[in-house]
Amino acid sequence: MKHGQISSKELSEFIRERATIEEAYSRSMTKLAKTASNCSQLGTFAPMWDVFKQSTEKLAACHMELVRKLQELIKEVQKYVEEQAKNHKKTKEEVASTLEAVQNIQSVSQALQKSKENYISKTLEQERMRKEGATQKDLDKAGLKVKKATETYKSYVEKYATAKTEFEQRMTETSQKFQGIEEEHVLRMQEIIHSYCQSVEETHIQIGEGQEEFVKNMENTSVESLIQKLAESKGTGKERPGNTDFVCGVFCVFLQNVPQLDEEGFCIRPENSFYSSSDSEDEDEPRKFHVQIKPVQTNNGTHQHKATIDELKASIGNISLSPTPAVRDASHQHAVTNYSLCFTTFILFYLSSNSRLSNNDLLSLDPFGPTSTGSSSSLPHSSVPPPNRPTTPLGTATIIPPPRPLSRPKLPAGKLTGINEAGRPFSPSKMSNSSPPPAAPLARAESSSSLSSNTSLSTSNTPTVGTSRGPSPVTLASLDALPIAVAFTESVNAYFKGADPSKCIVKITGDMTLSFPSGIIKIFTSSPSPAVLSFKLSNTSRLEQIMPNQQLLHSDSSQSDTNTKDFWLNMPALTAYLRKSSEQNPAASYYNVDILKYQVCSNGIQSTPLNLVVYWKCTSSTTDLRVDYRYNPEAMQPPAALTNVQVLVPVSGDVTNMQSIPNAIWNAEQSKSLWKLSDISDKSENEGSGSLRAKFELSDGPSIPATLAVQFFSEGSTLSGVDVELVGSGYRLSLNKKRFATGRYMADC
């Protein structure tokens, strides 16, 4: 029975070791899949990397599923070990009488053997005395001894018979019970092994299916299909463009030959100008355009070779064509329009070609990044439309709103449940000469929008507005898809209690914000029915609660797909709000609007990006502290580095000296120690796992173990994995920013 318990524990350890190996292999395959994602996406072979990535991710998922099954099996084995120990203890009590029978027959057997030897000895002594002719008196004494030995011998024979009967009965019953226990033990072990084999077999089947799918995908990917994909992704269209009207040479100053100028610096109009001579009051005098491009002033300041959007917008606003008589020719009007577009394109091209102007354009807007008042705006090179881009206006006839349900249900207002999201300063106020990190690292210094992690995540019906970073770069009116920026901000709150993962409490909340350029307001107000802005949220099955802005947002509650959810904006209400915001903040270049807030379904400690365990050892003179942490990439979508990691620990008992690894900062006024760590990720040492250790010498100990707090944030990832996709035409997603940070992130021993 003891060996049965040993075998059960050894089997549990064997399965645990197999699970560890499988988990390590799965993580390695996940890293390999990331490597495939980072491979070159150019050329005809680029689609093949997607096949490699998907196949490798499926293989990693198969092994991770096996890990999950093995962990469940380990729990079953542990449960059986506990049941086995209880059964053995109960059996030991039940067979106590058998132990007494065994001890009884052993003692009776020994006594029987001694009485037998004594009987034989006395009998032989009596016979010897008879042969030697001993006296009658001696013979009588010997006879009495033989008689007594005979009676003793007979009594032990009877006792042995009784003890033997009881022993055989007890031993038979006990042996049958032992055999039943062992049979049950072997059967349970066989069941465990069968479950183990079945889990491994299912994994191998899944791996085989994944390999077959990979082979089929490779076989179905022909040379022609790869060439076709490249042509579709890089092509400019299947129809040849029509003839192009001649436009003014203003733009050509930079891209083509410099036009001829007269002695006054005016551009000499070619004879075949698109201006009809009959439309001019002075038919004999050619029309002139004066183009003057001032050189950039050189200086050594921070504004060297740098032009602001304000300056360029002012320049554009001051440019106007000379007054002309009424246009009677359609080609004439088309040419005038082309001139305006040509000059606007030149301005945009100038911005994009200046590599220093890359920090403040709405099309490349970073809603989370810090800004300063008066910073310049620019347009990224990748966002500039090419010269041959179609300029057909998006009139009301071309805007087709997405289908909507017959009725738009009113969504109830409410607040997300969970830990209070109010931010708090993390580092001590008086610690060193270095300035402490901000209380809300996600917030703009000058913005009142929900991009700040310091604001409450409860539902708000009042949208918020970002302040100005310069004039809006959207100057092409409705000639292009309108740029919309999206930001997801999430806050993770966690409380770790000891080393027990089941005691970890986790709450994750987030919000979604849309950012509109100020130039879009004119487009909305000038159109009687602007295109309805619709979008689709994906991975919504991971959300426990969604609270949309009831004033601006509508959704279809009858959707059957639990993993996606469609929304569309109330365009009149949005237009009215943006107009009002523009009147209140005329200098703003964009406006942030809170669209919806949500709460994420959490899975305990598995949903935390950084696992924590804290240990205290307190004596009257010293306090030993150890904080173990482990990076958890599975909690993020996709995994991203944790930056600005700080750990704050209060220590009582009048600390006189502190020794720490790595080095920490001690604040004597607040009696707190602070660790500032570098970025933590799966590429860090030990894959993001480590320990913080400190020894405190006390003058008034012992210390009382306190709750420690942790701060960090991460860019380019969320904990929910929620994403957005614009639906319909008329708009384009110029930026999709994601970030999460800690709210109340604490640990106790």
TrEMBL record:
Alphabetized Gene3D superfamilies for the sequence: Arfaptin homology (AH) domain/BAR domain, Mu homology domain, subdomain B
Primary residence: membrane
Subcellular location: Membrane, Clathrin-coated pit
Cellular component annotations (GO), alphabetically ordered: clathrin-coated pit; clathrin-coated vesicle; plasma membrane; presynapse
Membrane-protein topology: Peripheral membrane protein
Entry annotated with the keyword rRNA processing: no
Biased composition, class Low complexity, residue ranges: 370-382, 441-464
UniProt-recorded name of the protein: FCH and mu domain containing endocytic adaptor 2
Keyword Membrane recorded: yes
Keywords linked to the UniProt accession: Coated pit, Coiled coil, Endocytosis, Membrane, Phosphoprotein
SUPFAM superfamilies xrefs: BAR/IMD domain-like (SSF103657), Second domain of Mu2 adaptin subunit (ap50) of ap2 adaptor (SSF49447)
Coiled coil: 63-94
Taxonomic classification: Eukaryota, Metazoa, Chordata, Craniata, Vertebrata
Gene Ontology annotations of biological process type: clathrin coat assembly; clathrin-dependent endocytosis; synaptic vesicle endocytosis
Domain of life: Eukaryota
Family: Belongs to the FCHO family.
F-BAR domain sequence ranges: 1-226
Signal peptide: none
Region (Disordered): 370-471
One Pfam family hit: GMIP-like_FCH
SMART domains: FCH
Domain MHD residues, every copy: 481-749
